[in-house]
Amino acid sequence: MKVLIVGSGGREHAIAASVAKSNRVDKIYCAPGNAGIGKIAECVPIGAMEFDKLTAFAKENDIDFTIVGMDDPLVGGIVDAFEKEGLKVFGPRKNAAILEGSKAFSKDLMKKYNIPTAGYETFDDPKKALAYLETVKMPIVLKADGLALGKGVLICNTLEEAKAGVKEIMEDKKFGAAGNHMVVEEFMTGREVSVLSFVDGKSIQIMSSAQDHKRAKDGDQGLNTGGMGTFSPSPFYTKEVDAFCKEHIYQKTVDAMAAEGREFKGVIFFGLMLTEEGPKVLEYNARFGDPEAQVVLPRMKNDIIDVMEACVDGTLDQLTLEFEDNAAVCVVLASDGYPVSYEKGFEITGEENFEGKDGYYCFHAGTALKDGKVVTNGGRVLGITAKGNDLKEARANAYKATEWISFANKYMRHDIGKAIDEA
């Protein structure tokens, strides 16, 4: 098979690495890709939102299967564009990707189908939002309705912070058009867990659990980012939690989307909060998490092409997902100053230290090739992932491997997976 992957981040590198293990695939392309993906795939200089160019490339190069990694093209309708040309593609259609594309839609869906989530109200008028804030308890959560690179959520501890947040999202348009509508949500307390799943429109198969670290600085301080590291599995995702979610959340979400005429095929990412009243949905994503993919996919035993084709073909119930009985931790190496401002273009050295070392991975996110050298080209630069027999060993291995890589302005959190010690 010839496979095309759409995207350019650490998630797409993890997908490409899994595809490269399939004995059914002999050629991988990635558009636009990055310096690391370029070592296992042919990178194509086409942007993820250039649907016409992507479909034309797929037809001209006899691509058998396309995998869309990113949220923007999915929400924008890339799957519909490929299907219109008779091309086989993995991911939800536009009318299903709205599950991530509109937080107001997903909250309304959960309310209608009795899927546990936090109480909320939605607003398209900042004056009404401000008036509502006067009536609720703090802290409160403000969410830009649309896509905001994982950063459109504000946790406000005081009324003053909440009012400033409304101004930021709805009036100053910090997240652009994503802030035309806003969700004001009850603040939930508990442990967060990420659960990725494969879906074929009717049935759902759950992958191994994971836990992300969103804040920029140690101790969950600083600004929200796209994710500074993650670990899998989560020790807090117990058999009891799994049983509850299977009964009240997972299949109910798939069935709800089908009932709404929005059949979902692809990956649903369940962001869960384990509250005292039981698990509740924090958010849905319509694709693999980043960096969750970097710890979940290396542990999956199945051929990823078999699983993804089953999602497209509606035969997922004929497969059983299998994961290694071990653990993985990913530590993101970022550019100092991320997520606000940072410099690019610094040479990255030391990647050769990963060669021939089983269970260690250097996933590229914000990198580029310049004059034959790999250089930094984004806020999140690399995802250093390592496996271990258990989470503590995986964590130690991952932090050891971060020392193998050097670049100017290298920054990371030093407490990824520290919650493991409390489990």
From TrEMBL:
Pathway: Purine metabolism; IMP biosynthesis via de novo pathway; N(1)-(5-phospho-D-ribosyl)glycinamide from 5-phospho-alpha-D-ribose 1-diphosphate: step 2/2. PROSITE patterns: ATP_GRASP, GARS. Its cofactor is Mg(2+); Mn(2+). It comes from the Bacteria. Its EC number is 6.3.4.13. One of its GO terms (biological process) is purine nucleobase biosynthetic process. Keywords: ATP-binding, Ligase, Manganese, Metal-binding, Nucleotide-binding, Purine biosynthesis. Residues 107-313 form the ATP-grasp domain. SUPFAM superfamilies: Glutathione synthetase ATP-binding domain-like, PreATP-grasp domain, Rudiment single hybrid motif. It catalyses: 5-phospho-beta-D-ribosylamine + glycine + ATP = N(1)-(5-phospho-beta-D-ribosyl)glycinamide + ADP + phosphate + H(+). One of its GO terms (molecular function) is ATP binding. HAMAP family: GARS. Belongs to the GARS family. NCBIfam families: purD. This is Phosphoribosylamine--glycine ligase. It comes from Roseburia zhanii. The gene is purD.
